[in-house]
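Example record

One chain of 280 residues, shown exactly as stored in the release files.
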Amino acid sequence: MKKIKIVTDSTSELNLDEVNHLNIHVIPLSISMKNETFLDGVDITPETFMKKMKMISELPKSSQPAVGEFLKLYDELGKDGSEILSIHMTGKMSGTVESARSAAKMSNSKVTVIDSKFISKALAFQVREAAKLSKLGHSIEEILDKIKQIRDKTKLFVVVDTLENLVKGGRIGKGKALIGSLLNIKPIASLDGGEYTPVTKVRSKPQAVNYLIKQFMNDINGKTIKCIGISHAEGLEFALNIKSKIEELTGFSNIEIDYTTPVISTHTGPGAIGFMYYAD
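Predicted structure tokens for this chain:
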């Protein structure tokens, strides 16, 4: 039976222990600020990145991996006849999945590329499951079917604490940001269909917690919670408040909380959180 090897990108936020244990191959995006370029998750920590970002006026720029990087990895992984499943962040926010597809067409290996429609831990939900099923000897068809089920049942919400980075990134105008800041408005968006989609605005973090918990409880009604993850950019207290509320209401305590990758925090700014879950 041919082995299936799993590839993803650095926005999946998988830690080194998981990557090694599940034999996942991670291609990093890159991020540039001023005259420096860093490989995401390789040569700069999220904490150091946040400090550097606050010291510059322009928004750092993230770049997808080059087609050649994917091609090199695919050819190497497929040398022994293995098949490759490459699962990546939403194509609505990055050209990463298209780079992977271009490389797949050029590779001597058999490569299947999947747009996860998500980022962060919501991407990791699919990658982890694919790696576990691969280790158990499941076929590519069985793995694809399972990760589609996960994708269809996953929700992701983003809460931004400051509007500054949205202005720098051209997502909102300075006038709106000024009014929003004066009113202490915190936008909440979802990632439905892989696209950043504003859903509501609140005026405080407690209101944001209440909104997210209400959505969560509605979504899991009659279902079994499978995975919950919270990523943050200097928003640990915010994340812990959500975790505490979920534990109180459901008894589910296996909630991952981690610092998000610099590629994501570039766009959200400090204080933001991503709240992700999958229930079946």
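Notes: The longest helix spans residues 120-135.
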